[in-house]
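Q: I'm teaching a short session on how sequence maps to structure, and I want students to see two examples side by side rather than one. Could you give me a first protein with its sequence written out and its structure tokens following it? Keep the formatting plain so it prints cleanly on a handout.
A: Of course. Example one:
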Amino acid sequence: MVRGVHFETHRTDRIGWLRAAVLGANDGIVSTASLVVGVAASNASASEVIVAGIAGLVAGAMSMAAGEYVSVSSQADTEKADLDRERNELASEPEFELGELAAIYEKRGLEPELARTVAERLMAHDALGTHAREELGIFDLTSARPVEAALASAATFAVGAALPLVMAIVCPPSLRIPVVISTSIVFLSVLGALGAYAGGAPIGKAALRVTFWGILAMALTAAVGSMFGTSV
């Protein structure tokens, strides 16, 4: 009897871009909706509200791109430094590195002799890659990719920011605040659900978490705008 091929679907390879995409879209919705609501609550004119929203979209997208690129580049630099150090140690102290790898497998439950055999085989195949995974925790699927993270954050921020901005443009001034708040809550719930679905996480919990912080941000900025009551 021939067994069928068993396929497994994992989502670990999505971690880098998914994190940046969800963060960008969430920040775009929350910051732009909060900005629009806060400015509108200060009795600003319709044109001032729209200009503030557009400025927030552009500035936020660039800020997200720059921030992600710098932070992920720092991670990439650290990973590279660790790999260079490990490469030098493998060249200068191969026996010590072999014993170090064997000790890792012993701690995971292998008998000493088997652990050393496994370590020898893996180091003969790919010494640096094996130590990167087992000793440093660096995997190819989850390694830092600065450009990918920056582009994902900027693009998704712009898309997220455009949603409340469009609602602010198309709705009547008298309804701008409640419409932007209510639609942004819906957008945030959908974003949380989509992010959780893509990552294989509980959908309800993720949607609730994203929505809660969005509501809090919009409420605080609306309170600030109402308190000062001046045009921006």
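Q: Perfect. Now a second example for contrast.
A: Example two:
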Amino acid sequence: MADFRIEKDSLGELQVPADALYGVQTQRAVLNFPVSGMRCYPAFVWSMAAIKRAAAEVNHDLGLFQDVEADGHKQSGAEIARAIMTAADEVLAGQWRDQFVVDPFQAGAGTSQNMNTNEVIASRANQLLGYGLSDRGKPVHPNDHVNMAQSTNDTIPTAIRLGVLWRLDELLNVLHGLREALARKAVEFDPIVKSGRTHLQDAVPVRLGQEFGAYAKAIERHVEKIRFAGVGLRRLGIGGTATGTGLNAHPEYHRRMVATLSRLTGLELHESDDLFESMQSMQDAVFFSGALRALAQDLIRIANDFRLLSSGPTTGLDELRLPAVQPGSSIMPGKVNPVLAEMLAMAMYHVMGNDLTVTLAGQAGQLELNVMMPIIAHNLFEMMHVTIGAVRAFTEKCVVDLTANADKASGWLAKNPILVTALNPLIGYAKGAEVAKKALAENKTVRQVVVELGYLSEAEADAVLDTRAMTEGGIRGSGGGGG
């Protein structure tokens, strides 16, 4: 038996793998675009299948499927519609994933991806109706039936929106998990008073719990921003067909498609108030990408703080102890590195690079269409996939089990000459500078020096240099607050 079959399209005949559900147009794309060896993300496959499933149902309800004479037998329009819906349901459930073979770097707008989906679902529908892949005169046609009332130009932007929304809750839940883990550490570390640092130099005291509370709040704010950025993606332009006019689609198609997709996916979806804008502009996708970029830069900042605070242990800050998850060196025995923080930073650099591609591709549309949609889709789904995995690993393998080195934190604080800042209201800036310089030069504490110079009594010094009270704000030693 031959390992290929012959299929024909408007350009002529081509060999297609004998057992492939995809057909000639997909095979042309495979041959034309051997670029990266990557496949499209499951979010893209799921989204396209959802559109085909909904379209078959809507077009059937509108009475648009006609009976077909196939191989001497009549196949009713209802049977064709049901077969398409069943085949699409299988794809939605995760079957036939290996049949989606088009490289993400493909023909502009995503025609190859759309036809890959059309051909797989048509072939499977024909199988469900009792036809083999090599049979002639099969009743279900990828363009006439699976792609009915659709164009690549409205299905791909709709799939981008659905694919992001498909994993949005997963992303937000992972970020919520990180926020919760950081918030728990904020409570656990609240008793630890340490040196604050600005410009990487000693600054006035803070509590380690305050630092972690700020990390938790930053993630909380990013959750709010990402959720808001997802709102615009809920507007669907399906039904605009080729340019936004809705040519070849029933007047009720757009409204019914949005309602049907909402029911099938369980997502909150809305009709577009301008189908032309929904097809021309990628601003909603770019805006969402920007929200992920903003998250990425803050995660890098937090990861780098973890690396600084855990540096050493004998020659660095050593205020945090990160979980030891693997040996850190192939040559230095016993070395342990902050690998989860490093991983998170690398992943987020990648996400920021993805965002640049989405931004550039978003502005690359012309007139009624943006032909860069395949790479916008791929990069958006990759950003979400990488962020979900990286944040989950960082949370579970680093944040949850990290500990604080309270002794080292208090030791650094005791030597911090910037504690003199609390003396400003009592002795003034000039005398404070004198105390700080003397303490640093003689390796003495601020308390020792201010008492030696006679600027404060021991009791006054103890009261004003209460480091825990300093972290509560107010004016020290003047009745102005702060204890």
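Q: What should students look for in example two?
A: Point them to this: Residues 152-188 form the longest helix (37 residues). Also worth mentioning: The longest strand covers residues 201-207.
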